[in-house]
Amino acid sequence: MASPGSEADATPAHPAAPSSPAPSAGAAVKAALREVETLLDAGQLDEASQRVERALAAHPDTVGLLVLAARIAATTGNLDRAVQILGSVAALAPDRLATHAELAKLYRRAGRLDASDAALRQVLAREPDRASALRGLEQNAALRRRAEDRRRLSHAGDGSDHAAPGMPATAAMPPASSAAFAPPQIAELREGPAPTASAPAARPPTAQPPPEAAELERRAGQARSAGDLEGAVALLRQAADLVPERLPLWRDLAAGLRALGRLDEADEALRRILAVDPARVSAHVGLAENARRRGDGRAAAAHFAAAVAHHPGDAALRRRLVAALRHAGDATASAAAIAMADDFPDDIEAQVAAAAAARADGRPEIVTEYLTRALALDPSGAAAVGVSDALSRAGRKRDALALLSRAAAADPGPDVLERLAAAHEEAGDIDAACAAYERAIAAAPGRVAAWIALAGIARRTASAARARQILRQARAVADDTSPIEVAEFDLLRQIGLDNEAGQSLDALRDRMPADASLRSRQATFDLDHGRFDAVAAAVAAMPVQTARERLAATMAAGRLAEARWQLPEALDAFNQAIALDPANAPAHSAAARVLVGLLRPLEARRHLSEAKQLSREGQLARGRSLNPSQSLVGQLMSECWSNRAAMQLGSAAIAADRLDAFLTLVTEEPDYTPGAIAFLVFLRRKGLLRVRAPRQDVPAMPRRILQFWDTDALADDVVELMASWRAENPGWDHVRHTDRTARAFLESLPDPRIRRAYRAARKPAQKADLLRLALLFHEGGVYADADDRCTAPLEPHLAGRTLVVAQEGRGSIGNNFIAAVPGHPLIGAALELAVTAMLRGDADTIWLSTGPGLLTRTMAVDLAASETSRDALGRDVVVLERFELRRFCSPNCKVAYKTTTRHWSKEEFGQAV
């Protein structure tokens, strides 16, 4: 196999860590900005407002924080406050044209079209050709004309003007198409003219609280700061009872109740607000968030529609309504998105949403129209990222790359640079990707995403050592080191350093016990190491309040059942997950995997096809086929129905769940790999593969470790993995064969057919399969694949055994690690079958013809034919579970060569298995 070359040649230069990575006020502001953005994305407006106010108290006159504060005020309907804050921003940064553009939009929402025009002219004074400002003036003129037309129609009908007193008619009327998308029960909320944010129908002034209530409110704030939410909620309720007209009390009470999971009580508090102020956006959004947490997408959409009815000119609210309708599977979502784009022609996000809706509806010409509109708005920054993503999803990857390149040249912010780097990476231009990631790091060294992506490239193209070096650099400058530490844990797991990974995870969990991603990683880590009771306890404790939480808990239960070889129970769980979210590709993949194990290929194919289509973009981006059979599970699925008589026998054996039925299956159909797997899963479930105390009168296994790499040159990460076998087993012989030494060894054997079979092998993996069997049969010892890491001495696990192998997750017998005494009959039988397959020119996948599939069939036939062989299970012949193998060997480590066609499954299926 070709060596990746030296580290300096393999990876473009990466930035060194700054010499003075001390934390700064700028870092604190960036951290606050990210936290507020996260809260806003989650719909937690009250929490976001409190966080930005705290940050502004510490860092006043910070433009980024003020802009976020204005955004929150606008979203909650407090337009006067938003305008006031943006006025401060304009004074601090008079050349920031975005401030004037945002002011123009706020004035438009409030119906103050003259003020909106004035703000737009401020933009045009500096950039006379600014297309969005010119369109804004046109839109204001159109709104005036529309208002005048409606006023005339109103007078013609009843002689009266329906605009609210003191408010322009434009503000009182929703956009022309805004009612067209509302579902029936939502439309009822929108009858008649709706009050707007600038002049709600009946908003009384907020009363000043009496001293007793003020004291309760102060104590509630202290309790909240101390982490005593229950105490804070109790105090707020007392204060609200004293001053029921004080709306901030009900707002804070609702936020506290939501945080405690008491959603019904939170709803009641929010409705108290709406009874006084029906146009209060934050209350409608809070009700929507509570409905979303319950998993009731339809109700969430209805609450967003109620907010939109009061604030029809709020583009951000309309976007959230469209997202809620789509999440609820509402048929009106696409029409809503397109109507929004037409109502807000200068809103880039609206155009992107309309393009996505048209794409989902299979209307490519409409997709092009709205993406063209979005591009005409000259997107930059986050908007450029959004448009580029939409272009990529529409298959216009070159256009997306060109847009990002222009945006990065005009305004090289880290968001654009990171997305540009990812686009280069998707296009296969690794050098350009690394250069863009390095520019992103130079622009914002404290951000971690570019560092982590750069480390990922290094692992895939150079070595894990280079990746670890980059992550260490990132640690020195990161604003928040937690994501870096998580990436380090993931890397340690990928390269088989489980002891270090476990220590890293323990430290992370101690610091962030409530982090959901760490809980998930802990469960996977525990599954890999056989700590099933710990996983079961974690699954039982998982929250199930929302649909997403129920889905996560159900998937975790399915994976646990599968790890325990309880396939029907696992299938039930995965089917439940699909019922909760029919568009969940991992659930469909998991169901297909289990169905193949149950010999139900038709159902498996349906789920595999669905999984492929649901992840279509990702599959195609990685060069993978959408054909369901083009994966290892897909190949086994095809094998299931390749022999219908065998499949019927196997199904009957699984239903009977008796040894005699499986013995009949394997004896009558010895070449049927799915049946052999089902037999070995049966033996595992019945405890017949359990490891027992060894006998003392068996021949000693040679203290020899055998490995293969077809070329003399070794990749750096392979050198490290192979060295682990010598390091953990001093005194053992370590023999690495190349293609040249393998041929010399095979020439020394008396059977010339083995040499001919080796020469006939198409791939290095087939040569390795033949060589390992020949070496083990004629010399004995331990064979380990080049991507396996030894983590503990072998002797305690091999003493007193004649054959040690491991069972893979699908139930087959792996051939990555095999330990055998010379002349073992099972190894001899497997060698004979492999030689015959190669000389016969079998066209099966390598896995089936010479790899684990062959070894699985050989062992199943031997166990079915001989009661003596079955009696030896667990003593002379040991079949380890995956977690038992991991006690001394970390299999299938992620090394650079596995991303190339040098790895057998990459060429056969377009992906590494």
Q: In words, what does this structure look like?
A:
The chain is mainly alpha-helical and 913 residues long. Among the domains are: 25-149, Tetratricopeptide repeat domain (Serine Threonine Protein Phosphatase 5, Tetratricopeptide repeat, Alpha Horseshoe); 211-427, Alpha Horseshoe (Serine Threonine Protein Phosphatase 5, Tetratricopeptide repeat); 643-688, no CATH class; 701-909, Alpha-Beta Complex (Spore Coat Polysaccharide Biosynthesis Protein SpsA, Chain A). It is 66% helix and 3% strand. It is built from 50 helices and eight strands. It has a six-stranded mixed sheet with strand order 2-1-3-6-5-7, with helices on both faces. Strands 4-8 form a two-stranded antiparallel sheet. Helix 2 runs antiparallel to helix 3 (45-58), helix 11 runs antiparallel to helix 12 (229-242) and helix 28 runs antiparallel to helix 29. The radius of gyration is 33 Å and the shape is elongated.
What's the layout of helices and strands?
Elements: H1 7-10, H2 25-41, H3 45-58, H4 63-75, H5 79-92, H6 97-109, H7 113-126, H8 131-158, H9 169-172, H10 184-187, H11 211-225, H12 229-242, H13 247-259, H14 263-276, H15 281-294, H16 297-310, H17 315-327, H18 333-343, H19 348-360, H20 364-376, H21 381-393, H22 397-410, H23 414-426, H24 430-443, H25 449-461, H26 464-477, H27 482-494, H28 498-511, H29 516-528, H30 532-541, H31 547-563, H32 567-580, H33 585-597, H34 601-614, H35 616-621, H36 632-642, H37 644-656, H38 659-668, H39 673-685, E1 704-708, H40 716-728, E2 733-737, H41 739-747, H42 752-760, H43 764-778, E3 781-784, E4 789-790, H44 795-798, E5 803-806, E6 817-820, H45 825-840, H46 846-849, H47 852-865, H48 867-872, E7 877-880, H49 882-885, E8 889-890, H50 904-909
